Amino acid sequence: MDMEVRMQNTDLQTSEDGSLVVSGYVNKTEQPSNVLGVTKRFIEKIAKGTFSKAIKNSKRDIDFLAEHNNNLILASTRNDSLELREDDQGLFMTATIAPTTWGKDVYTLIKSGIYRNMSFGFRSIKDSWRTLENGLYERTIEELELFEVSVVKDPAYSQSTIAARGIDLVEEVEIPAEVEEEKRLMEEKLTKILEKIEVLDTLEERFRSLESEIKEIRSDQEKVLEFRKEEQDSDPQYDEKLEDKSDEKLDKKEEEKQENKEEDKDKAKKEDKKEDKKEDKEENKEENKDKDKDKKEKEEKSPDKPQDEKESEEKTKDSNKNKENKSDDKKKEEEGVDKEQKRSDNLYPNFSEFRNRLDSLK
User: Fold this and answer.
1) What is the DSSP string of 37-86?
2) What confidence score (pLDDT) does residue 343 get?
3) Contact status, residue 111 vs residue 11, Cβ threshold 8 Å
4) What would the pLDDT profile of 299-355 be if each residue is shown by its tens digit?
5) Among 14, 16, 199, 250, whose CB has the most other CB atoms within 10 angstroms?
6) How far apart are alpha carbons 299 and 302 in whole angstroms?
7) Do 75 and 63 form a contact (C-beta atoms < 8 A)?
């Protein structure tokens, strides 16, 4: 037989007339227990109405024992010396202990406060599970079979007594796989939430930094406005001077734009000239190749060349040399122009500005 045991610290009441009557709560319903389990931790509570159903449906006698020892029966439902009932708080017990030697001894220990813990043995028939935010599981027992109730001093000793009775004590309750999966998903969600919180904290720090920068900028703006106001008060023409300066800056910018445009045009022209030179060279190479090819063909056909052909080849060579010389002269002339242009630019960097002023004087 498999049995689970739960213990509760309770306040057992004893009779004052010497009738060996004790009473107290065995378990409080709807109240979470301490953390249970070895590898998989959980808390547990008994749903209301569970004990009433167990007492009603019980097909066996329920005994009141000392230390879960089956040889130390103190009272039993068999002779109505043990009364069990469920009220609004939980399972309440009233037991009239038999006046045996061990019964009197146990009663004396209860009355003196040495025995102050109540425990009950049961088998779960129906339960439900859920995952809590703190990572624990919560088990709610909705239906059970009640075997016994006991008064105990040492829970460890009670467990050994139960084992000696041939009862398998359930210490590790099996948690449903779907509940474990639910816990895993919840932990993943919690991890994502924590990551988002970290991002929000970072954004908050950045926002505060930006807010501080904005305050500094506004402070600088206020200082500039105060300075301008002071200057305006001391110099009535201050605004006109500012406008003149801004106009000068705009004119300079326009001049710089025009100069940049001119420079871009000059660069483009130079690039075009370079491309033209490359094309001329390519054409000359192609012509020379064709001529060499014709020459080889003629040599193969007639080894002895006539004098006229030799003269024509010499003329062609002279013509090609003249073209190359002219190309080189043209190149040197352009380089000279470029150097002269650079020199004039160095001497007169603001030549366009100078011409505009000269025109305005005229």
Assistant:
1) -SSS-EEEEEPTTHHHHHHHH--S--EEEETTEEEEEEEETTTTSEEEEE
2) 52
3) no
4) 676 544 455 555 666 666 666 666 666 666 666 655 654 555 555 455 445 555 555
5) 14
6) 5
7) yes
8 Å CB contact between 28 and 50: no
- The closest alpha carbon to 63, from 150, 152, 177, 155, belongs to 150
Q: Which helix (H) or strand (E) holds 276?
A: helix 238-301
223 burial (CB, 10 Å; 0-12 / 13-18 / 19+) is: exposed
Query: Residue 262 and residue 268: Cα distance in Å, rounded?
Result: 10
Q: Which of 37, 9, 36, 106 is nearest to 66 (CA)?
A: 106
Please list the residues that pair with 149 across neighbouring strands: 64, 120
* CA-closest candidate to residue 35, choices 43, 47, 25: 43
> DSSP string of 240-272?
HHHHHHHHHHHHHHHHHHHHHHHHHHHHHHHHH
User: Look-up: residue for tokens 């017990």?
Assistant: 93
**2 - beta bridge partners?**
168
